[in-house]
Amino acid sequence: MKTTEVTEGIFRLSANVEDILFEGIWPIPNGVSMNSYIVKGTKAAIVDGVCDWDGVPQTLYDQLDRMQIDINDLDYVIMNHLEPDHSGWFRSFLQLRSDVTVITSEKGAELVKHFYGYEGDIRAVKTGDTLDLGEGRVLLFAEIPNVHWPETIATYDTKSKTLLPCDAFGSFGSIGEKMYDDQLDEQELAFFEQEATRYYANIVGPFSAFVQRAIDKLKDIEIKIIAPGHGIVWRRNPAKIVGDYIRYASYSKGPAKTDVTVLYASMYGMTARGIDPVIEGLRSEGVTVHVHRLPEAPWGDALASVWQSSGVVVAAPTYEYKMFPPMAALLEELGRKKALNRKAFSFGSYGWSGGAQKELAEITERNRMNWDFLEPVEFRGAPTSEHLELIRQRGKELAVKVTEWVAASPAS
Ligand SMILES: Cc1cc2nc3c(=O)[nH]c(=O)nc-3n(C[C@H](O)[C@H](O)[C@H](O)COP(=O)(O)O)c2cc1C
Ligand SMILES: [Fe+2]
Ligand SMILES: [Fe+2]
């Protein structure tokens, strides 16, 4: 990948990673980029790094070579965030060079020691602290805890008004030759918007209150460029990704879009017979419907879909006195990710005594999800035509509730 100049004195290095589960759990069908930045005054800093997966640090070193930057010429390693997708390369860096000044937060300093055994010069910064690189390039730091880990900071270059926020404002999606919003056409921007939504729902979602707080904290600084740790760099319209992140954060408590996600699972097709009728009922009121069958659907997609939806249909049979396991696991994860306050409807088949609905109630209560359910429809074995009609009706009712909720929200 090419090294490019983001703006005078700031260079972007990057590596794409594909064919992995991000964080060991999330499929990334379109890959993800790990972005790192060289910021130069008379002194040079590297801000954020890359992971230590197969060959990735070498990609970074090759890019430094091509820029004719000797690793010994780096004066500072600025670690905004210690998660190893950004800091992993530091292990190999320490084999090339044993001493460097690390800039991070106080909590970050502890993690540098624990993850990399580094006992050298570590400088802990707080909100408002600055670092003068010379030639008028003064970096300003801001603590943005829990976006994404508790130690996270953002680095701001006062000279070019570039914000380097690491995970915040990031997106999934590998990056090719075009890496700036000013190089992308509408279709390409729409692709990265989808990737940003899935990234947000999968990675950042539970920290939505902190995202909002971080955005409030950065409100008073003029931002001309946003250069995140993943995804494209925003040079033409940084306000776009900030606005999107404010919207994604608001989806945690809802309402989100006028969309309904249908999550379903079925062993022998009994529960599945209700899917067409429920979709028909939902669509009769004009809402957009997304359907995910478990366990086949990638978790990351199902989660991103619920994140953007104000309504959810949960359709699953009873399995060993409880809810069909992949559905229970996904619901549990939706609770942890804080997909709260959805309008919802559930139905499903059972053989003798049921149990799926009871577990559904347990999961939503335990996770304080506050999902507002219509009366469920349960049936033994195959649904009758009356059951199917009832399911269609409930789908329609759910769509009406979702539409009213979205219309009543101030953001709509
Ligand atoms: C492995 C297994 C475990 C089951 N456990 C229960 C159970 O504990 N209680 C119950 O009422 N039905 C149980 N059933 C019956 C299913 O809920 C029933 O067959 C239902 O119609 C399946 O719906 P589906 O075809 O949509 O998967 C079980 C079925 C299977 C295959
Ligand atoms: Fe992270
Ligand atoms: Fe990250």
Key structural traits:
412 residues, Metallo-beta-lactamase, Chain A, Rossmann fold, 2 domains, seven-stranded mixed β-sheet, six-stranded parallel β-sheet, 12 helices, 22 strands, elongated, binds flavin mononucleotide, binds fe (ii) ion
Record the SSE blueprint.
Layout (H helix, E strand, L loop, with lengths): L3 E4 L2 E8 L3 E2 L3 E2 L4 E9 L3 E4 L8 H11 L9 E3 L5 H4 L2 H7 L4 E4 L1 H11 L5 E3 L5 E3 L5 E6 L9 E5 L4 E3 L21 H19 L3 H10 L7 E2 L11 H14 L5 E8 L10 H9 L4 E6 L5 H10 E7 L2 E2 L2 E2 L1 H12 L6 E8 L5 H11 L5 E2 L3 E4 L4 H24 L4
The structure holds flavin mononucleotide and fe (ii) ion (2 copies).
Description:
The protein has 412 residues and is of the alpha/beta class. The chain folds into two domains: 4-251, Metallo-beta-lactamase, Chain A, CATH 3.60.15.10; 260-401, Rossmann fold (3-Layer(aba) Sandwich), CATH 3.40.50. It contains twelve helices and 22 strands. The chain has helices at 56-66, 84-87, 90-96, 106-116, 186-204, 208-217, 238-251, 275-283, 299-308, 325-336, 356-366, 385-408; strands spanning 4-7, 10-17, 21-22, 26-27, 32-40, 44-47, 76-78, 101-104, 122-124, 130-132, 138-143, 153-157, 162-164, 225-226, 257-264, 288-293, 309-315, 318-319, 322-323, 343-350, 372-373, 377-380. The radius of gyration is 24 Å and the shape is elongated. The model has no long low-confidence stretch (mean pLDDT 96). One fe (ii) ion (FE2) binds next to loops.
